Amino acid sequence: MAFRANYLKKGLALALTLATALPLLGGCASQNKKMETSIFAMDTVMNLTFYGVDPEAALKGVQEELVAEIYSLEDKLSATEEGSELYALNEQGQASLSPETAELLTQALELCELTHGALDITAYPAVLAWGFTTGDYRVPDQAELEQLAAGIDYTQLDVDPERCTARIPQGMAVDLGAVTKGYAGDRLARQLEQANITSALLDLGQSTIRVVGSKPDGSPWRIAVQDPAGEGYLGVVELTDLAVGTSGGYQRFFEQDGETYWHILDPDTAAPARSGLTSVTVVGPSGLVCDGLSTALFVMGLEEGTRFWRSHPELEVELLFVTEDGTLYVTPGMDEMFSLAQGYEDREVQVLQ
Ligand code: AMP
Ligand code: MG
After folding, report:
1. What residue owns the CA closest to ligand 1's atom 10?
2. Which protein residue has the closest C-alpha to ligand 1 atom 1?
3. Rounded to two decimals, what is the model's pTM?
4. I want to staple 182 with a disulfide (CB 3.0 to 4.6 A). Which of 151, 165, 287, 309 is the partner?
5. Which ligand 1 atom minimizes the distance to the CA of 295?
């Protein structure tokens, strides 16, 4: 499979890079200095870790640039912060955009189209109506839901990436919550590569992760996948130079009258997506695609999601679905990267073809 071959090639290239780089370091791998920082941004805790060679001042500079980039993206892309470009677009129906916002909106719209609207970044009025942005949760009645669903339509959002402008009809609004953290991971990975950092683990929060290269010892990064039905970890994905996105109803939800309502909405109904899945994990070269697709595939469910995966090999993604009965379904490339955690060895894992 193309993705697998790519993955192996990258791993080999990295192993070779390390093999040739070590003598230049005088065999002193301990010069690999660990830089670590945690920040609260985009409504979540982010942990950024990377390894580099002294001088420390230079590494601190790189770290500051990463943090500055996250805050700068948040300032532009937040739907809730007055003063952001997205806020202006939603309030005024049109806005001038920075190149980053124009790029993200354009790429997010492409994903909306590719997923036939399972991802729809104009679901924001429905997200607001359910109270997911404020925590003032409520269950809209059927008439309200129908009205909200009728107003979700990404084709009404017009983005001009050349002029860096966007327009949206009155009453509609955009929310990039499903893709921003993945996009941020891509941008941070590029910054690190430009700074010649070849080993990093960027945890952008809520199971959105981007790794650069491998661990300093050359082994792959190990990323835990949360059990959507419990506190523990179902298993571990081992990867090099890739992104991971997981979406699940367990990440943000409320309960009312014995019913659980979560933050991933089906654009057709404006209500929480009930597709029989409890989580979807997507691994691939683009953080934006992994983040957006994990949301979209959660809406699609196992069957439609598998068909989507088969018909889009160009995305080079590998998937892990967890269904309500606790069964895991993995694509063959994911099967190679994934192993069950202790205590979960008996869990059924089906390999999709
Ligand atoms: P994620 O955690 O990446 O799956 O993204 C979920 C967030 O995206 C939610 O908190 C909403 O803000 C927004 N959202 C919910 N449902 C959708 C959808 N079907 N398409 C696009 N964005 C959505
Ligand atoms: Mg997402």
Report:
1. 263
2. 178
3. 0.91
4. 287
5. 4
* Tokens found for residue 34: 């660990």
Position in ligand 1 atom list of the atom nearest CA 120: 20
Which of 231, 243, 204, 199 has its CA nearest to residue 337?
Answer: 243
Amino acid of residue 160: D
Beta bridge partners of 41: 44
* pLDDT tens for the 353 residues of the chain, in order: 333 333 333 333 333 223 223 333 333 444 689 999 999 999 999 999 999 998 889 999 999 999 999 999 999 999 999 999 999 999 999 999 999 999 999 999 999 999 999 999 999 999 999 999 999 999 999 999 999 999 999 999 999 999 999 999 999 999 999 999 999 999 999 999 999 999 999 999 989 999 999 999 999 999 999 999 988 999 999 999 999 999 999 999 999 999 999 999 999 999 999 999 999 999 999 999 999 999 999 999 999 999 999 999 999 999 999 999 999 999 999 999 999 999 999 999 999 99
Which contiguous run of DSSP H or E holds residue 155?
none
| C-alpha–C-alpha distance, residues 213 and 36, integer Å | 16
